[in-house]
Predict the structure.
Amino acid sequence: KETPDRSCTGNASLNSTLRLSYLPSWGNIDLSGTWNFSRSHNSLRDKSTFARNYTLTLESTLQLPGNVQVSTDACYRSLNGTGIQGSENDEVLWNLRVSWSFLSDKRAELSLYWADILNEKKNYLRSVNAYAFSETYQEQLRSYLLVSLKYRLQVLRSSW
């Protein structure tokens, strides 16, 4: 009777994050970077695969006179590794928000939010291991504008 060959698959991952912040009186600037590496090896196939993810993010808020606030964030993402092709895996996401608070006690806020200004979001989910490389794409809303008006209601409390 023949005994099937045994297979052993091992996975290893490394992750790192670096974040720098500057908080002046007029707003803030935050810069962060992440690096993720994963490797998988299958003993039966004697095959190794790997994936590397890089992310660099810049976030900033600026307080302007007249109760106006401008916020922006930009994120560069790159993925490479086994079975992953060149620049189709890079994306730059840039969002912008401008808001104005008004009325007494800044009770109302009018804001404009523009998501994915460059229209580059790809929304891929990738998985790499010694058995397979898989990629899933999920349909999504790309670049859009959102205008909103918020109003805080005052709740009256009575003392009994």
Notes: The mean pLDDT is 85.
